[in-house]
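thought: user wants a sequence for this fold. calling inverse folding tool.
action: design(structure=
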């Protein structure tokens, strides 16, 4: 089950993000992905998503919740932001939702 369907069944959170960013075909870096509640709707539109979080259990939950048809677009990492090496211009959008 997608975690967003429990926390935000109407999809209002992602709809708010879509009002400020166009995810269609974008290369997205999702900082602090947690259990993946935003990863699925982002990945449904984006070309690729690298989603990471320091909470290994949450990242594993995100992996398990990811629909198989999105598996080729999404990579997960259990790591802190300081441990992720990101080449310049590797992403079009950086998503930092609910991480503060």
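)
observation: tool returned 100 residues.
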């Amino acid at each position: 089950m997608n975690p967003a369907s429990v926390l935000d069944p109407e999809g209002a959170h992602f709809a708010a993000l879509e009002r400020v960013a166009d995810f269609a075909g974008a290369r997205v870096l999702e900082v602090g992905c947690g259990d993946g509640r935003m990863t699925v709707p982002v990945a449904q539109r984006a070309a690729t998503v690298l989603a990471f979080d320091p909470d290994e259990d949450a990242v594993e939950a995100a992996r398990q919740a990811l629909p198989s048809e999105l598996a080729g677009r999404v990579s997960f990492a259990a790591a802190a932001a300081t441990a992720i090496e990101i080449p310049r211009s590797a992403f079009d959008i950086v998503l930092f939702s609910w991480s503060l």
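thought: summarizing for user.
answer: Here is the designed sequence. Residues 3-95 form a domain with the Rossmann fold fold (CATH 3.40.50.150).
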